[in-house]
Specification:
single chain; alpha/beta; 6-stranded parallel sheet; 14 helices; 28 strands; 21% strand; globular
């Protein structure tokens, strides 16, 4: 292989592993008549519920609440309908890697030295993820204390609107067969359920490759009772206290794209049923609580947050991100464009997923890595040098990979970290530490997961898509030469899978925690010690549900929306 081809192959590997990870009226472009730009917002004071974040949970929640209450949704990003082709399956990689200032994907780098992204668009992570749809495991539902019949109905409500059965073709079929040969049995066919073995899950891509997102759930909304403001960045939750009584949320302050500040307040401040609900995600929800004076008092005071409303030491704690480790397999045969369809749910706590033929723009990849370098300089993280690699990229090319990527994701995980303020700008990234593989059990699961991937690669079922003579262990080592994260590489990684797991860890974008049930919110997702304030999103989770969390998060929005409406009716 000559140098030029090796350089392109290295680039394919790098980009392929970046991207793995989860009754209203509208016109043909999906422009809902209740959707407006925040710059047109007056000061507002007539809503029963203010939902902060029109993402994976927020859209489902707001659509449900609007059936019997007035709802204001404040979304900091724009509309996915502004560029519909950007959400098509063929543009998946480019959309995720586009982290320019007004893009839908906001880059951040953890204190662990791992690249990550946050969604900033109506529909949240469902606009930029790999589209796989699989329900939470039964134990997760039981531990959450959710009513099973209502959970089932909420799932079906979501699935009717945005979920499809994928068309399984050559590469995904070979991957499925390889999983079964590797012992990830039995084969459970096509199912949304979380069951041990190999299965085909759902997808939010339709048969034509068009993505359907949580934003589509707003089609269920009552257009006369909901307003969605885009480019509305919430800066602070407003509280009132009477005497020595508990603080009560009564509104928010938000900023539009032009820098103008607006106030939104609940309609009847003396009503105990009206609420502010945070659905801003696992990064922004704990960050916004802190910026509003709810969090560890000493930390808030150190950043000049005044007043401190409630000293809440557990806000920002329990942050976790399921570690992912990839293997890139160049193919001698053409492969179809596919994201996650087949998945191996192992008995030992690792999930095996894969995709193929990912199309990408090298210019966007370079822009992504330039963004990484800029963040590193800004946050003073210690990093590896990637300038030599960047200079080697041919920016004139747009290419598609003739290859597959297989990844292992550790369930749980048990390793936990924390989130802290870096400054008081809600649009800036806070400091996040996930402590990947700090827990030995997580590390053991990674080793078993990678060992299973090696078996898949060397299986008869997968052999058509692997060059003769290449070994699974040898393909793992290709990753070691690439800047897939900012962590140091150790010589022992070439033969020690535990060290390989630590050195090559990446995100699959399933981070959670920071406002956990029992620590920051109660079982009804009400913030402890505060009235009229809930958090309903993945920040409340103690672990990530199932193989991919988007199904459970959309379901949670619907489930809690209905529960809140029942409480309202009963009152």
């Amino acid at each position: 292989m000559d140098f030029h081809n090796f350089r392109l192959l290295s680039h394919f590997i790098l980009v392929a592993v970046f991207i793995f990870h989860d009754s209203c009226y509208s016109d043909e472009a999906g422009n809902y008549r209740f959707m407006k730009d925040a710059a047109s917002a007056p000061n507002l004071s007539h809503f029963d519920y203010i939902v902060v974040g029109g993402g994976t949970a927020g859209c489902a929640l707001a659509a449900t609440l609007s059936q019997n209450a007035t709802v204001l949704v404040l979304e900091r990003g724009g509309s996915p309908y502004d560029d519909p082709t950007a959400t098509d399956i063929g543009n998946f990689a480019n959309t995720l890697l586009n982290t320019t200032p007004n893009s839908w994907s906001q880059l951040f780098v953890t204190e662990d030295g791992v690249y990550n992204s946050r969604a900033r668009v109506l529909g949240g992570g469902t606009v930029i993820n790999a589209g796989f749809y699989s329900r939470a495991e039964e134990d997760f539902v039981a531990e959450a204390g959710w009513e099973r019949d209502e959970v089932e109905a909420a799932y079906e409500w979501v699935e009717k609107k945005v979920v499809f059965e994928p068309q399984v073709k050559g590469w995904q079929s070979a991957f499925r067969d390889g999983l079964l040969e590797a012992g990830v049995t039995p084969f459970n066919g096509f199912t949304y359920e979380h069951v041990v073995g190999t299965k085909i899950g759902g997808t939010i891509f339709d048969p034509d490759g068009h993505r359907h997102t949580a934003a589509n759930l707003l089609e269920y909304a009552n257009p006369d009772k909901i307003v969605v403001y885009l480019h509305a960045s919430v800066h602070k939750i407003l509280f009132t206290t009477k005497g020595n009584g508990r603080p009560k949320a009564y509104g928010v302050i938000f900023q539009d794209a032009g820098g103008v500040y607006h106030t939104a307040e609940l309609g009847t401040q003396d009503s105990i049923m009206n609420e502010v609900i945070l659905s801003a995600g696992a990064i922004a929800s704990p960050q916004l609580l802190m910026l509003s004076g709810v969090g560890p008092a000493a930390h808030l005071a150190a950043h000049g947050v005044n007043p401190v409303i409630v000293d809440h030491p557990m806000v920002g704690q329990g942050m976790a991100d399921n570690p992912m480790n990839p293997v890139f397999i160049p193919s001698p045969e053409p492969v179809e464009v596919s994201l996650v369809q087949a998945v191996g749910i192992t008995k030992f706590g690792s999930y095996i997923e894969g995709g193929s033929a990912l199309s990408l723009s090298i210019s966007l990849t370079r822009s992504f890595l330039d963004g990484v370098l800029n963040l590193v300089k800004k946050t003073k993280l210690r990093t590896l040098s990637i300038s030599t690699f960047l200079n080697s990229l041919d920016l004139r090319l747009n290419v598609a990979t003739k290859a597959g990527v297989i990844i292992q994701k550790v369930n749980g995980p048990l390793s936990r970290g924390h989130l802290e303020l870096r400054n008081t700008d809600p649009d800036d990234n806070p400091s996040v530490t996930f402590n990947y593989y700090q827990n030995q059990e997580d590390l053991n699961k990674c080793v078993e997961g990678l060992s299973t991937i090696i078996k898949v690669i060397e299986s008869k079922g997968y052999s058509k898509y692997k060059y003769p003579g290449s070994s699974g262990r040898g393909l793992l080592n290709l990753i070691l030469a690439l800047p897939t994260n900012l962590r140091a590489r150790h010589i022992t990684s070439a033969f020690d899978l535990k060290q390989f797991c630590k050195d090559t860890v990446m995100t699959i974008y399933h981070y959670h925690g920071g406002c956990q049930v029992g620590k920051v919110v109660d079982n009804d997702y009400k913030v402890l010690g505060i009235d009229a304030l809930r958090v309903i999103d993945g920040s409340t989770f103690l672990k990530s549900p199932g193989t991919n969390p988007q199904a459970a998060i959309m379901m949670l929005g619907r489930y809690m929306g209905q529960k809140i409406l029942r409480e309202r009716t009963a009152f």
